[in-house]
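Data deposition worksheet. Section B asks for the primary sequence of the deposited chain exactly as it was used as input, without tags or linkers unless they were present during the calculation. Section C holds the resulting structure in token form. Section D is free text for depositor observations; keep each observation to a single sentence. Incomplete worksheets are returned to the depositor.
Section A, Depositor: J.P.
Section B:
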Amino acid sequence: MLLGVNIDHIAVLREARKISDPNPIDALSIVKKSGADQITIHLREDRRHINDEDAKNIVRLSQLPINLECATSKEIIDIVCDLRPHRATIVPEKREEVTTEGGLSVIGEQLRLKESIALLHENEIEVSLFINPTIDSVEASKDLGVEWIEFHTGKYANIYAMLYSNLENSPHSIKSLELSRKELKKLLDDEIKIITSVSKRAKELGLRVAGGHGLNYQNVKDIANIKDIEELNIGQSIIARSVFNGLEEAIIDMRNLIS
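Section C:
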């Protein structure tokens, strides 16, 4: 299982005060030393965290492969083609969202995606599509000729959080709480089965499979146990833990969990 560490939230902290630190560049050697396999960043159209200079320096200086997440706007795709990271992961993007809320709508967007994929491939950049875990999205991704897909694991993470948080001191009766737990557990089990099934189908089609979004130290094991997923991209939870434990220890802890 490969681990990509998303360092966007280091830039989020910097941008909160509009000053020069913490600098995401300082994380590069620590991420490598800690046993991660990849640096992941997201160059958003509104530049709310990682900016153009960050992206340029990270691609230039990192000793690990760079996975650059991006939307399909011409401006962003042109920048990615100029930087030539190891991989570009095309994601949906809304200005008003706090974080990416779901996977790409691959069905019906093939023409727009095909143009961006062709430009990236012309610049020898492998391409991943960030999609919801559905068979239709997997097969459409294969038709578009990408090398990778990354499943949006946000639904799984949200169900997990509802199931395992706020269970003590509940105002509900034990009976209703147990029913609620059973229902949520079934939803969680069903979602794991779905991700497992679509990962297997993607592998059969020759796609490489990654997962990410909402994964943390509590919920990561079930996803890491899916044998056809070979890479996880995790950011917020690692950076959050690093505030208290340091970045190296936070990455090592995650590395140990998924291994």
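Section D:
The first strand starts at residue 2 and ends at 6.
DSSP finds eleven helices and eight strands in the chain.
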